Amino acid sequence: MPRRPLPAASLLPEPEALKPLAERMRPRSLDAIVGQPRLLAPDAPLRRALESGHVHSMVLWGPPGCGKTTLARLVAHYIDAEFFALSAVLSGLPDVRVALAEAEARFAQGRRSVLFVDEVHRFNKAQQDAFLPHIEKGVIVFIGATTENPSFELNSALLSRCRVHVMDAVGAEDIVIALERALADAVHGLGGQGLVVEADALALIAKAADGDVRRALTLLEIAAELAADGRIGEATLAQVLADRTRRFDKRGEQFYDQISALHKSVRSSDPDAALYWLARMLDGGCDPLYLARRMVRMAVEDIGLADPRAWRMALDAWDTYERLGSPEGELGLAELIVYLAIAPKSNAVYRAFGNVRHVIGDTGTLDVPMHLRNAPTRLMKELGYSKGYQYDHDLEGGVALDQQCLPDTLAGTEFYAPTARGLEGKIKDKLDALRAARRAARKGADP
Prior knowledge:
The protein is an alpha/beta fold.
């Protein structure tokens, strides 16, 4: 016997009890949103705009679970508009066109539409461009949600038509408020289950949620299911929170923020901060070999000749991790990051090399001085190749002080300016004396 077809999705009921707790407890007013006072306090511009019914297209940028989707839904509610949602993960350009066509039809009837696009940074340029004329004409109030930096992930044309609102990770104290509401709400939350919550249990859940309200409510719901005796306490939380992880996106904004913090902590000679950011990135799942490679760069770029041992130590720590793996090899990276942080710093060679590249770009292909050219043939010798070259080892002191090695137009240019820090201080003393001797020798050789 053939099965009866399921009814269309739009006709299916949505039983409240089957929804996750985080969905059931989604705030139904601006006052119920926790943790965004900068945007939603009574005197905040966005709050005033919503309550007056005059809103603009916007991009909501913030970490997971901070309330982006909830705020988008409330925008539609406060301005009395139809709410239509797309997920950039699941939708393509045909879905976008259908949504825009429906918005056009509502617009023709004098009805407003809020088109919400979750993970909008996943849409390509063509998909993002499809919204532009409809935003300009006022057909839709566009709201895009993203966890990534809009400056890098969204088209400038779309950004120019939207206002970017930055939403913050929710603090633990505000998350506790959301958890308490869920426990007290007998209609949508857990208020009818008679749960007993031990002291500090909600604070532990809020801390483990790491700024994510949705995650906190999910953890609370799991704890309620595991609490066989109706008590959420230490034993229950030990099961629920065993595998918690911190927020970290290996390819997103937080990744680049944290590697920047690690590098700048080393540059600022702060070993405590450097250790913290190294551990944070390892804890978040960053590839330790990537970190090892970046630390070699720190040794070359920021320590340089102030302590050349740092370069060798960085390569050794990289090799150590490849041989030992995790977790033992991570200790080698930790020892390295502390050494790099406390080592004397110099970017003198880094700057000098950049200056040389700039000069080369400006001056083009300058000829090698004749006396420095090799002369393997008779013709080249007759043309003057190598004529007048002084072999430094045959001279007193081992240096031909009056011998010019730069092209004629750059003669006397000094690119490298060593610092007085660490070993480079001794290099500076040596180089200062050598340069003074060269200037004196060349002055004496001038007719």
